[in-house]
Design a protein that fits this description.
The protein has 21 helices and 14 strands. It has helices at residues 14-22, 70-79, 90-94, 107-115, 124-130, 132-138, 143-147, 174-179, 189-201, 228-233, 255-269, 282-290, 301-304, 310-318, 358-373, 375-382, 411-415, 430-435, 439-448, 466-486, 493-521; strands spanning 52-57, 81-86, 101-104, 149-150, 153-154, 157-160, 168-173, 241-244, 247-250, 296-300, 324-327, 344-350, 390-392, 402-404. Keywords: Signal.
Length: 523
């Protein structure tokens, strides 16, 4: 390995930790389904005299623990273990209640827990030996190891995403485009601008009132600025670290960001952006699309690109005469694209206590490998029992898209059977992903996704001083950007923002980002 970055600071804020525990991409965020399996355990597994006791941190996105679920009992029988499922929180870790194995959603969480001394360091050679199939896949994304390497040691098993159904592109009201005389979905920023002005000025809903807007945003998103595709058209994404001519700089303060703000400011002044953009969320802007208030939103590909996608289906149920069309992000002076999480998914960590328990460590890796390669195990933990909890979308199919059966469509319903609670997420091999994914959705992702052009140059790694500055700088950015776009302060105040951002910790973070890039990510 290359020389690794210096030891991370112990000052990461608990708020960062909580955010990462609930963030990230679980099994539900991956464009794959697990293979078919039988309902029973594998009778061929040789039982040991006494089951190995494992404390298992349940899936980070699950709201709570379900004791003695169907999946828990199945795992216990198959692997000759006794499982105690627990919910992982900052408080439980701080009190010393560290599960033997659990998942984290962000490199910052791995760093924070490593600083507390509760994690076991791992060896890439051990991963290669214990999980050879998965290692062969993730080795192609080797930089992911660098995101959780501290003091020349690896502290987590990184997961990866290849085709991401949650990548964002544009979902347009096609009936509105038709009404204002636009015959195709906009492709360039100029075409985008023409369409949203028409939506605001030409009464596309035909009610004779001036009550429509082109678009709205999500200025209060927890990690960035909203209006991702517009910033992407200028070649930046606020709060991300970008590499430019060998130098790492933050998208919040780049000159291209000021250009994007100028465009958004003009649109707001002309009545094209909904004045409620400051408080809107993805849920609220979907409702505004349904209810004839705006004509375009950024939407996840899985929710908007296919005829049976969730947002398309919801629109039809609420507004049967409406038509939607999916399109790429607009191309502008800096290219095109939207916020992209890159190949990073979640991380699996093992308690430091396990390093002195070789029998338990071997058992954990037996389960890890099974959740990566064994169809029966993957299926049971992520989908449940075929015919009871799920089935293939096409009748009689043995591969392809899957769907949950009635009564199990919601994750909370599946949790009662233990489905998801014991899934270890995106450690399935590439071969399984390809075999058990939706070909139509795969093609849509390849068509509409702009990944990886607008992702973080450091793969969202935690910097030593993130805990001191990151949340504060994100809030500062959101405040200034909302005020600039809405016209509350002049565009020239962007320069004041840049100076304040730098003086309040941005310069220190930029220095650390460049050091990390040179030490760990520069190829």
């Amino acid at each position: 390995m290359q020389t690794k970055f210096k030891k991370f600071s112990k000052t990461l804020l608990p708020a960062m930790l909580v955010a990462g525990l609930v963030a990230g991409c679980g099994n539900g965020g991956n464009n794959k389904a697990a293979p078919e399996a039988s309902a029973g355990a594998n009778a061929g597994t040789t039982a040991a005299a006494d089951p190995v006791e494992i404390t298992w941190g349940i899936h980070l996105q699950a709201p709570g623990v379900v004791e003695n679920s169907q999946v828990q009992k199945w795992l216990e029988e198959k692997f000759n273990v006794k499982i105690k499922p627990v919910k992982v929180t900052d408080a439980s870790i701080a009190s010393g209640e560290v599960p033997d194995i659990f998942m984290l959603g962000d490199p910052a969480n791995v760093t924070a827990y490593q600083n507390q001394g509760v994690l076991m360091s791992l060896d890439q050679n051990m991963l290669k030996e214990k999980m050879p199939e998965y290692y062969a896949d993730i080795e192609k994304n080797n930089a992911l190891f660098q995101t959780v390497t501290i003091d020349d040691k690896l502290w987590a098993i990184p997961m990866f995403i290849d085709l991401k159904p949650y990548d964002l592109a544009m979902l347009w009201r096609k009936d509105w485009l038709d009404k204002v005389g636009i015959t195709k979905a906009p492709e360039t920023l100029d075409e985008f601008e023409k369409a949203i002005y028409a939506f605001a000025q030409k009464d596309p809903d035909g009610n004779g009132q001036k009550d429509t807007y082109g678009l709205t945003g999500t200025a209060t998103s927890t990690w960035s600025s909203g209006f991702y595709s517009i910033f992407g058209a200028f070649g930046v994404e606020p709060t991300m670290w970008h590499e430019k001519n060998g130098e790492i700089m933050n998208g919040s303060v780049m000159p291209e960001t000021k250009e994007a703000l100028a465009k958004l400011r003009q649109w707001f002044a002309d009545g094209v952006i909904d004045p409620e953009f400051i408080t809107d969320t993805q849920d609220s802007y979907r409702k505004k699309l349904y209810n004839n208030r705006i004509g375009v939103i950024e939407e996840q590909i899985a929710k908007g690109a296919l005829p049976d996608a969730a947002t398309v289906t919801e629109m039809k149920s609420l507004n049967p005469n409406a038509e939607l069309v999916f399109a790429k992000n607009p191309k502008g002076p800096g290219g095109d694209g939207s916020w992209d999480w890159g190949v990073k998914s979640n991380f699996i960590v093992i308690s430091n206590k396990v390093k002195d328990q070789p029998e338990k460590l071997n058992k954990l890796f037996e389960i890890l490998r099974a959740e990566s390669t064994d169809e029966e195990t993957i299926n049971m933990t992520s989908l449940g029992v075929k015919g009871t909890h799920w089935d293939f979308t096409e009748s009689g199919a043995t591969s392809g898209a899957t769907q949950f059966k009635a009564g199990f469509e919601k994750a909370e319903e599946r949790d009662q059977a233990g489905i998801r609670l014991f899934s270890l997420g995106n450690i399935t091999t590439q071969a399984y992903r390809e075999k058990y994914s939706n070909p139509a959705l795969n093609e849509a992702i390849k068509t509409y996704s702009s990944a990886p052009r607008q992702t973080d140059a450091l793969l969202f790694s935690a910097l030593p001083s993130d805990g001191k500055y990151k949340n504060d700088l994100t809030s500062l950015m959101q405040k200034y950007f909302a005020q600039i776009i809405s016209g509350e302060i002049p565009l020239e105040d962007f320069d004041k923002f840049v100076a304040e951002w730098k003086s309040r910790g941005g310069d220190e973070l930029t220095k650390e980002a460049n050091e990390m890039y040179q030490a760990q990510f520069k190829k």
